[in-house]
Amino acid sequence: MYHTDGVSKCQGCKSQNRIAVGCPFITCAVKKKGVEFCWDCNESDQCERWKKHRDSGRKADSFKCYQKLEDDINFIRRNGIKEFEKEQLYREQLLKDMLNKFNEGRSKSYYCIAATVLEINELEEALNRAKEVSAELTIKEKSKLLHSIIDEIAQQKNYHLKLRK
């Protein structure tokens, strides 16, 4: 759902609309416990709702890719939220580069998932390899090329580049 246009555009978990809906995680963490994220809560290790959410994230995705949820939580615990935000902003730059230069109009979801699942150095490698040989290609050919490079990396690393149901 990367920057969806229109009224359904996601404003994020802590937007006024989302808080008004009554998300159980926001209600518990932000409103009741006064913590920023569930993993900051002293009770997170025993919380059945949080455990169930993490367990389901290991198996399936919703409209959002949860494949990296555990890695993201561990990264934040080790490095802090500011460092995580910095990394996510860089991932967003790489994603924008993919969308601007290699999107034939049908690859937005694929590139969004790739930008979530692949390591940053793998994203950089894929983009650099594609840029090196794509100057004279049509947008369809460029897209196909980047897809093949990303697919190759994903196959080597056993990444899943579709939302899991």
Short descriptors:
elongated; 8 helices; 165 residues; 2 domains; single chain
Short description:
The protein is mainly α. The protein has helices spanning about 15-20, 25-35, 50-60, 70-80, 80-100, 110-115, 120-135, 140-155.
Describe this structure in words.
This protein has 165 residues and is mostly helical. It folds into 2 domains: 1-49, no CATH class; 81-157. 63% of the residues lie in helices and 0% in strands. The chain is built from 8 helices and no strands. Helix 4 (69-79) crosses helix 5. The longest helix is centred in the middle third of the chain and has 22 residues, at 81-102. The chain is elongated and about 55 Å long. The protein starts with 15 loop residues before the first helix and ends in an 8-residue tail after the last helix.
Can you lay out the helices and strands and say which pair or pack?
Elements: H1 16-21, H2 24-33, H3 48-59, H4 69-79, H5 81-102, H6 108-117, H7 120-133, H8 139-157
